[in-house]
Amino acid sequence: DAGVIQSPRHEVTEMGQEVTLRCKPISGHNSLFWYRQTMMRGLELLIYFNNNVPIDDSGMPEDRFSAKMPNASFSTLKIQPSEPRDSAVYFCASSSGQDAGEQYFGPGTRLTVT
Amino acid sequence: AQSVTQLDSQVPVFEEAPVELRCNYSSSVSVYLFWYVQYPNQGLQLLLKYLSGSTLVESINGFEAEFNKSQTSFHLRKPSVHISDTAEYFCAVSVGTNAGKSTFGDGTTLTVKP
Question: Closest-CA residue in chain B for A40?
């Protein structure tokens, strides 16, 4: 299996622009997680889905952030409008639910908002 | 709810010395425990896990961790570290429900010096 795939790997954008991050989970996995990692705040869970349904979005920082999972093989995290404080590495992870919660992480998207 | 405390944010150690990274957790129910490793500019990857059975679990690269229920700990150890072990290490706990959601600690940065 190719593992969790994220795109783009790097994104540089200007403040106010819309940013869309993409994730393809491991085939057969039914849970998907979006995390944000910064030096100041560490690793934060933003939202997670189970069977394509959002279960908990309490970690989404504000209304500028939204996430969707239209099918079992694709998810997006959108920031609109973006701000410099959104600069971070965003990780997507998936889990089969059969390994008591073992998660498989993608390589991350490094977002820089200028 | 569960919580994880990694007692050391940074651990510097010389090559070939032993190391212990400490992790304590809090939960009112039975848990599954994980250690993840994050090498520079990469996503997190599973290092080892405790699900049930023997309380001592090992990884393929010489790390081991012991589940201690009475002390609610899951410390990570290696008898002799290498330069290549330099990375950030995350302890995580799952209760096996919540669609595979895990609670992560804040991470410990292990720096191995020559």
Answer: B106
What is the C-alpha to C-alpha distance for residues A6 and A27, in angstroms, rounded to an integer? 14
Find, in chain B, the residue whose alpha carbon is nearest to that of A31.
B99
pLDDT tens per residue, range B4-27: 999 999 999 999 999 999 999 998
Nearest to A104 by CA among B76, B107, B36: B36
Q: Whose CA is closest to A75, among A31, A42, A45, A110? A: A31
Classify residue B25 as exposed, middle or buried by CB count within 10 Å of its CB (0-12, 13-18, 19+).
Answer: buried
How far is it, in rounded angstroms, from Cα A42 to Cα B36?
14
Q: Give B61-73 pLDDT, tens digit per residue.
A: 899 999 999 999 9
**Cα(A63)–Cα(A78) distance, integer angstroms:** 10
What Å distances lie between residue B60 and B12, B17, B46, B104, CA to CA?
22, 19, 11, 22
Mutate to test the interface with B, among A99, A104, A109, A110 (most CBs of B within 10 A): A99
A85 vs chain B: nearest CA distance in angstroms? 20
Q: Which tokens is A91 given? A: 């990780």
CA distance B77 to B11: 12
